[in-house]
Prior knowledge:
Layout: H1 8-17, H2 22-40, E1 43-46, H3 48-63, E2 74-78, H4 105-112, E3 116-121, H5 155-162, E4 168-172, H6 179-185, E5 188-191, E6 212-216, H7 219-227, E7 259-263, H8 273-288, E8 292-296, H9 304-319, H10 338-349, H11 352-365, H12 370-391, E9 397-401, H13 417-421, H14 428-433, E10 437-445, E11 448-456, H15 461-474
Parallel strand pairs: 2-3, 7-8, 7-9
Antiparallel strand pairs: 1-3, 4-6, 5-6, 5-10, 9-11, 10-11
Helix pairs in contact: 2-3, 5-6, 7-15, 9-11, 9-12
Amino acid sequence: MSLHDKSLTQLRDGIQQGDFSSREVTEHFLARIKKHDAQLNSFISVTEERALQQADAADQARQKNQGGVLNGVPIAHKDIFCTRGIRTSCASRMLDNFISPYDATVVDKLGNAGIVTLGKTNMDEFAMGSSNETSFYGPVKNPWDLERVPGGSSGGSAAAVAARLAPAATGTDTGGSIRQPAALCGITGLKPTYGTVSRWGMIAFASSLDQAGPMARSAEDCALLLQNMVGHDEKDSTCLNRAVDNYLSDLGNDINGLTIGLPEEFFPADLNGNIADVTRKAIAELEKQGAKVVSISLPSVKLSVPTYYVIAPAEASSNLSRFDGVRYGYRCEDPSDLMDLYKRSRSEGFGDEVKRRILVGTYALSHGYYDAYYLKAQKVRRLIRDDFARAFEKVDVIAGPTSPELAFGLGAKKDDPITMYMADVFTIAVNLAGLPALSMPGGFIDGLPVGVQLIGNYFREGQILNAAHRFQLATDWHTQAPTFAGDI
């Protein structure tokens, strides 16, 4: 078995046992990135020199019986996380020249656990998109079909993991941006309960929705990564101060008696029949292991997309006001006055989708429209949350498709933002409610992956990770990988 065929957990164990060194593993993945990423465009920055230095330090620590629980294991970070001394661009011209002077808390925590950073992955600009086509650095290609999108906004992380250019990666999820690309690329991705992972140093899109999470091949790997990402952070006022759960201890538990709810709203009449079949077969496997399946309803979920596209742009309008051409980031050339500096720096520095959302959000927050749009959207958000609360009185887990469609063609929806927004129709409600959810590979249709979503109650990440793990013990969809000519 080649090193890139090993899971994050297997690499961790192999390094700890001395079967291979961190430098060997790191060099192997750097070579794969160099050989294959020109086709995929999944990385914005590859930090080869730093990665090898970190790998050597990890090997030295192991020889002294030191180092963290992920000592020497290489991963990639989505380019939304600030990394000290490395460009953090958020895939935008606005931050193309920004070198962060500090590490995000997620980066710091994983660094303390001993990980090696291979580089920073491509994404939709400021995490705004569902296809990874809004990046200033060009679109990411889906490794299963280079003519198709990988999903977004964490498409670079998803493509890199699926193509075996990295064993795992960090991502962020504002309306499905971990789960949807995980589904389209055939990997496992987890969005934790809002507030369990610090957002400090994670460039903000919509502060009440953004959440960092792990992206890897399996639920076991996601649990291992999540275990070293969570925890209270006094620098983030939205980060919860609670005891850290042991997600790894739940893995392998019997799921006999687990009640899974299938919402009728997740299986509409116009859903691709093949996707519905794959999803139901995956749930049937869990049923075979003792889970009980019941039908439920989440009536307010149908309002998720319009609600999200009032709240998220409004918060984006506020968060992105700091990018003005004065303090850091892109600045236009030869401004005639201060107003010209503001206008041209922002119009030249931001891409079309970011500008579209800023305009929508500014309008929703403006005098005379705040009550009609933003306040009403927040009230509907509460209705969505209440629907989930009632459902979780009857069931342990809610399941359904992650995405209503397979990976679509590059450029197919770029000029139709409304159709693009509907790509997240099954994921957005989870963010509005602040719940944990994951996407796991459930099968293939015409050679393209299909993701199945499992939603848990607050702080029940361990339960949905275990359900996914039990499914993956019985199936091999998560082990499938795309092939490349001249693979190494």
